[in-house]
Write a structure and sequence with these properties.
two-stranded antiparallel ribbon; 3 helices; mainly alpha
Length: 66
């Protein structure tokens, strides 16, 4: 699961980087202090929570690649 969470967090980097540029560091740090941890938590909940959804992954040599 941690590899899936790593991929999901990495996918959000451009979005949150854009937010940071738009609002500045001070506001960004207040509004999204732990955005990476939150994205990881949300993916974990989506896959293993009470309302879990099927998750499909791409494998490369038996390792999760995407």
């Amino acid at each position: 699961m941690s590899r899936v969470q790593d991929i999901a967090a990495a996918a959000w980097v451009p979005v949150f980087s854009s937010f940071q540029k738009l609002v500045g560091d001070a506001i960004f740090d207040l509004a999204f202090p732990q955005w990476e941890d939150e994205q990881r938590r949300l993916v974990g909940e989506a896959c293993h929570g009470d309302n879990s959804l099927p998750a499909w992954v791409a494998l490369d040599g038996g390792e999760i690649a995407g």
